[in-house]
From TrEMBL:
EC class (word): isomerase
Designated name of the protein: Diaminopimelate epimerase
EC number(s) recorded for this UniProt protein: 5.1.1.7
Stated role: Catalyzes the stereoinversion of LL-2,6-diaminopimelate (L,L-DAP) to meso-diaminopimelate (meso-DAP), a precursor of L-lysine and an essential component of the bacterial peptidoglycan.
Species the sequence originates in: Chitinophaga skermanii
Length: 261
């Protein structure tokens, strides 16, 4: 089978994207997806996405996401922004769009500076434990504040948490966060990739939400990742309730090609 693909990245979080609006790739197997995401024997990526026609006409498209290991994944924030940029490239005419993903509907705004703003699901529960936060922003995230983040062994420390007694069966993403002069620096170990990635959209969203320990109101949190800058905007509406959450940042086409599988 010959597959035409596009490669996109959002702050270094990179993805294989396939236009599946004709349903030609509905039955991609786990080994096939894993092969396409392999950085030595395939195209290489932190995940793979299909651009599908939505079965519900109120949405412009449907997002189907696979982790790099080939298994179906939960919501991916940077992936959603990259797929939205691709949808714009192949046909979205307006400066706004809507799509449906595994965690529900999302809104998109295409900014003049090339950034893509993605509205995330509301968060109405945050577990605040001793030295950590745990919350779901479309995917589950464990958040821990640290110092010396640039020297951390994120792979081993993140893997130890992802596979501990609590999380081993289902898994969690693990985010290490350090406060900066005007925001936060975030590094993430991602389940499904089973390694550190340059950036994680749902992860920086989770980390940004945990900074809002003060009064209710509007927040805009600059976030630095290994792959570049993002911004998370949201409203705090209760002690552990957050709405109108937007993940904002670049989503860039890298290359396209054909691969025989």
């Amino acid at each position: 089978m010959q597959v035409h693909f596009h490669k996109y990245q959002g702050t270094g979080n990179d993805f294989v994207i396939i236009d599946n609006r004709n349903n030609a790739y509905d039955n991609l197997s786990q080994p096939t997806v894993a092969h396409l995401c392999d950085r030595r024997f395939g195209i290489g990526g932190d995940g793979l996405m299909l651009l599908n026609t939505s079965k519900d006409p109120q949405y412009d498209f449907e997002m189907v996401y696979y982790n790099a290991d080939g298994n179906p994944g939960s919501m991916c924030g940077n992936g959603g922004r990259c797929l939205s940029a691709f949808a714009k490239k192949v046909g979205i005419k307006n400066d706004q769009a809507t799509f449906i993903a595994s965690d529900g509907p999302h809104e998109v705004v295409y900014a003049d500076n090339g950034w893509v703003y993605l509205k995330m699901k509301d968060v109405d529960w945050v577990e605040n434990g001793p030295g950590y936060f745990f919350l779901d922003t479309g995917s589950p995230h464990f958040v821990r504040y640290v110092t010396g983040i640039e020297e951390m062994d994120v792979f081993n420390e993140g893997r130890a948490i992802r596979y501990n007694e609590r999380f081993a069966e289902v898994g969690t993403n693990v985010n290490f966060v350090q406060e900066t002069e005007n925001g936060i620096f975030v590094r993430t170990y991602e389940r499904g990739v089973e390694d550190e990635t340059y950036s994680c959209g749902t992860g920086v969203t989770a980390a940004a939400i945990t900074t809002a320990n003060g009064e209710n109101g509007d927040y805009a949190v600059p976030v630095q990742t290994l792959g570049g800058p993002l911004e998370v905007r949201f409203k705090k509406t209760g002690e552990r309730s957050y709405t109108d959450i937007w993940l904002c940042g670049p989503a860039t086409w890298v290359f396209e090609g054909d691969i025989k599988i």
